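seq as requested:
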Amino acid sequence: MHRFFAEKENFSNNLVTLQGSDASHIRTVLRLKAGDKIQVLDGEGSVHLVRIADLKSKSIKGEILLSEKIDTESPLKIHLGQSIIKGNGFDVIVRKSVELGVHTLSPLITERTVTKSDSSKKIVRWKKIAEESSKQCGLSSIPKISESAVKLETFCQQASDSDLKLIFWELEKEKGLKDINPETAPSSASVLIGPEGGFTLEEVETARSYGFHALGLGPRIFRAETAPLVVLSLLQSKWGDIK
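C-alpha cells:
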C-alpha cells in the first residue's frame, strides 16, 4: 500500500490532509480515486489507514479508518557527520543511511572535501531522498538532514551530549569498534566519516580534543560511499536493532 507522511497539524479528528507534491503524486501519477486506501505516517510513531475522500487541485483529504503504533526506530540514535563527496555519491549515502537507521545526518565540509558546495538545492534533494527512503522501508519518522553543511569542529561541538563519539580514519590500524566497550549500552552516537581523501591528521586531532575515539575499519580501504554503510551496520549490530 502506498505510504505518505503528514505533519501533525494536518490531522484533525478523524481526517488528514495531504498537500504539495504528495497530493500531486496521488492525483496525477498514481491516479488514485475517492474510496482508494493509503497509509499515512504522522512522524510520531503511528501509521494510519486512510480512505481518500476528496481530491482537489492542491490538497487531498482522507478519512482515518484505523490507527496503530509502529516501532521501527533504533534504540541507538546515530548522528552521522559525513563529508560531502563528488557526483551523486552523497545521494546514495543518504538513501542507504536511512535504511540503516540513522537518526540525523549532517553534510560536512572538510579539508579534503572535493565538492565545497552546500547549496539549498542539494539539501532539499537530500531531504526528499530521506523522505522517500523512509516511506519505502516503513519508518515511523523521517531522519533529520541538517539545513546546511557544517565544518568538522562545529559537528564536534554539537556532539557534546552523545554517549559515543567516534571518528573513522583509514590510518588508524590498531584500534577498531571491537575495542569500544562502554559499561552500559549507549543510546546515542556521533560518528565522523571523511571524504575520498580521508581526514587530515589535524582534523583527527581536533576531533580527539572533543572526546572522539579514532577507529579503523580493518586492512582494506573502503570507498567514501561504502564506509558509512559499513560503520552504520556495525553500530546497529552491536548496540542497535540489526540482529
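Residues 30 and 187 are 40 Å apart (CA to CA).
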